[in-house]
């Protein structure tokens, strides 16, 4: 995992060329109903740096992500300490601007279970996201961050949606040098313009623009600090398990 450019840190490696070269974006669709030999998904232990052999990879071991039921499934699993261990799946090509489209349903059938669709640069901290929390199954939350400044006050909810844990919806992020638009089922509910992010106190536009990776995750927000737990909907009700996020396809233009 630490050779791959989405995780590698050259400054903390044995040499500056320890990291694999960054694979840059090409238009693609990952249809997770296709067999494993299609190259749409790979476990990180099997990935050798060729994005054509793994458009998306599970970052952690043991892996709670797999192809099943004609989709990519990410599962949150209960640990002996009653906390959840989830999954993160990331695209292996970096993008800088474009349209990301995912057909999916969230795993957040209990408070505390958080499901996410994210475009992020982990080094710089630029991020554009969708977040699903178990206390709000009828909407999805949108947000963006610049340079790891976690301003939660900028969160905006989508329009009302049929239960996001039981129904598949089409989620899009349209990211250009000038604006970001969040779209669900072909209905745009939010646009942020770069010009609106100007901070006169620092003289910069606080607008995500760093080359980033598309990722999906399910994680235990209920066992976090109080602010995180309250946002996520409190401790997880494990009687409501299993918590399975299902992604049918991802398209990047």
UniProtKB/TrEMBL annotation:
GH16 domain span: 45-247
Keywords of this entry: Glycosidase, Hydrolase
BP terms from Gene Ontology: carbohydrate metabolic process; fungal-type cell wall organization
Matches recorded under SUPFAM superfamilies: Concanavalin A-like lectins/glucanases
GO cellular component, one term: fungal-type cell wall
PROSITE patterns listed in its UniProt record: GH16_2
GO molecular function: glycosyltransferase activity; hydrolase activity, hydrolyzing O-glycosyl compounds
Source taxon at top rank: Eukaryota
Family matches, as Pfam families: Glyco_hydro_16
UniProt entry tagged with the keyword Oxidoreductase: no
Xref: PANTHER family: GLYCOSIDASE CRR1-RELATED, GLYCOSYL HYDROLASE-RELATED
Protein known as: Glycosidase CRH2
Source lineage: Eukaryota, Fungi, Fungi incertae sedis, Zoopagomycota, Kickxellomycotina
């Amino acid at each position: 995992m630490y050779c791959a450019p989405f995780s590698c840190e050259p400054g903390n490696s044995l040499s500056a060329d320890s990291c694999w070269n960054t694979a840059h974006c090409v238009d693609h669709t990952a249809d997770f109903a296709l067999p494993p030999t299609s190259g749409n998904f790979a476990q990180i232990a099997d990935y050798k740096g060729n994005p054509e052999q793994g458009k998306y990879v599970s970052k952690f071991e043991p892996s709670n992500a797999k192809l099943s039921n004609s989709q990519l499934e990410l599962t949150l699993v209960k640990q002996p300490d009653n906390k959840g261990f989830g999954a993160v799946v990331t695209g292996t090509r970096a993008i800088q601007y474009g349209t990301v489209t995912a057909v999916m349903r969230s795993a957040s059938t209990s408070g505390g279970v958080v499901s996410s669709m994210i475009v992020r640069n982990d080094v710089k901290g630029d991020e554009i996201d969708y977040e699903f929390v178990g206390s709000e199954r009828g909407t999805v939350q949108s947000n963006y961050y610049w340079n790891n400044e976690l301003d939660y006050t900028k969160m905006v909810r989508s329009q009302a949606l049929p239960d996001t844990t039981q129904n598949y919806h089409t989620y899009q992020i349209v990211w250009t040098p000038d604006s970001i638009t969040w779209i669900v089922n072909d209905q745009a509910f939010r646009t942020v313009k770069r010009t609106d992010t100007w901070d006169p106190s620092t003289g910069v536009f606080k607008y995500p623009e760093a080359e980033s990776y598309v990722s999906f995750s399910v994680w235990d927000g209920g066992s976090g600090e109080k602010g995180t737990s309250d946002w996520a909907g409190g401790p997880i009700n494990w009687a409501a398990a299993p918590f399975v996020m299902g992604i049918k396809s991802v398209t990047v233009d």
